Amino acid sequence: MTRIYIIRHAEAEGNLYRRLHGQYNSLVTENGWRQIAALEKRFSQERIDACYASDLIRTRITAGAITRPKNLPLHQDSRFREVKMGVWEDVPFGEVGEKWPEQLNQFDTAPTAWSVEGAERYPDYADRFIAAMTESAEANPGKTIAIVSHGSVIRGMQMRLFIGTEHPELTGHCDNTGVTLLEYDNGVYRMIYKNDNSHLEESISTLAQQNWWKQDGKKRDHNLWYQPVGDDWRRYIAFRQEAWELIYGNLDGFSGEAFWHDASRCAENRPECLVFAMLGNQIAGLLQLDLQRKADRNAGYIPFFYLCPDFRCRGFGVQMVGHAISVCRPIGRKSIQLSVSPDNDRARRFYARCGFQEIGQSDGFCESLLLLEKQIAIEPYL
Length: 382
Description:
By secondary structure, the protein is α/β, with parallel strands linked by helices. It has eleven helices and 13 strands. It is elongated.
């Protein structure tokens, strides 16, 4: 008999920024690293003879909780990857909900019926996972192995082997670093337990901070999507003016025309660089990216990051950081930079939580500003 621990990866960018990351290669978040430490403690007294993972960064990093203290090699297998999401890859949950509401509901409640362009279907991803798992188990008879994989493909395996397709809700929801234990003997699988996250304190549990999986109907998560500003210069200038008055207390030196000219340059060939952050049909904020200003440092620059008053301090800003990463990383930018007033304590705390660090100073209208930077490169983890 082979014992098999199946572990979902630690919290990654898609979980935090509320984007569909199937086979998109995303990084582990700061909270994800805390979850990995808790996972390592959970398995500190457990004998593991071999460790497997998908070849994506977030699973390989998570697998370090097993391989590092036990001095084990990591066996990578692409068949343990997450479901291929097709046209949904790296798309915000909010946009999926706006454009594909029926398919999004199917993804949650009827995964066997779910289908979008370019995506894998349920039998394909469930079968490839099970084939790889069976090979791994049969290569380790009488031993204990760990497999680090992804939430949706683990769910598909559970349905295929144990739950069936009539009531997919019975699979439950697996937290980041949640653990399922199986036994395998002579071609037969047995589930001992599933989706256990008892090693996580509530403060670092991803599911504890989210509401989408709860059935009480009292709360729901709010996911943004992004709409190009286009030629809506009046609203752009109004947001700029409100931000200027908030910072300086008056409009001395303010030039809406100059700001709009600069914004138009940023969006001229890349409309995704000047967007309204949308919650349903409401404008929640505005994000402006300049891909020229710090190009010599291989960085993207954020000259304007704005949340409307009713949407501040509600967790939307972090999703907007995710949009900036989604624009900058595919074109090879290694970091994102922005400037903030040294007196703006609330903004500085927010950017620090998002992983920005102070790297110097930049010129402001009437004072020196702090220059902050967030590393976004994936190459060091490849």
